[in-house]
Sequence to fold (337 residues):
Amino acid sequence: MYADALNNGRKIFAVAPMIDWTDRHCRYLHRQISRNALLYTEMVVADAIIHGPRDRLLGHDVSEHPVALQLGGSDPVKLTTALQIAEAYNYDEINLNVGCPSDRVQSGTFGACLMLTPETVAECIAAMKAVSRAPVTVKCRIGVDEQEPEQALPELITRVLDAGADAIWIHARKAWLKGLSPKENREIPPLDYDIVYRMKQRWPDVFIGINGGIQTLDQAEGHLAHVDGVMLGRAAYQNAAILADVDHRFFGEAAVEPDWNDLRDRMMAYTARHIANGGRVHHVARHMVGLFTGLPGSRRYRQILSTDANKPGAGPEVIAAAFAAVDFGGDAEQASA
Fold:
């Protein structure tokens, strides 16, 4: 995937891994809107895979491909064990989280705090590469706390590339491990896109992608003049309709008007299958709430999905009712551009 992108001058558009958000139901929704975007799981801790409910943690619909598994951990043995378990689920990429700043992650000595021990990250990558059939990649910050990014980031990249990493995704902010919440760490540390560009200039033959604060497809396209891939997080989740133009703008497909009725029918059928397997409507519907932000009727749409989907006995008809509240003849540009 990444070698092909580099060799053929192709760019990769991805939806970022987001804890509590990019579960299998979210990814299924996103895949119905874009056929080509690279999707990521939320971070799954290696210990959870080894000792927990594997199918629940790793299972996904075949339609989600290309889909990447993001692992959390700092023990090469545990990471390789988790990866070997995950091999049966046929992920297209294995990504190591070196960027999450939450207290829970810090207590487990992984995530962003691994920026402080690049030698450990390199050991993990080397071990994972030795057993993985899929590309092994790293998603990191530009530094943490008092680190100087111009030193810390190149050192990390050098070490993980020497260990065999196939690609580097960089969230263009520092993480502050003390004093800022995870939410504040996504907003307060200033963005420094230029340092990511400089890393690409320094390693022209390495796939380097950018993440952090990217709100629109126009902004994404601007970044791709400097790097090989672009990753949207909250902007893609909170208004998933933005993904409707991804295949045209980034993958060369013909521009088409989104068929929202077809999406409704697909999501209703998917939800029915989920309910038949013991699930509930809100497991799926919660990821659809922001889908039509800005369109006439979107407020009523959100109300239906947020309230009726949580009622006992709710079924897929809740999705039909929500879609019926939206005026798709309104300002459609906001929903699809």
Remarks:
- The radius of gyration is 20 Å.
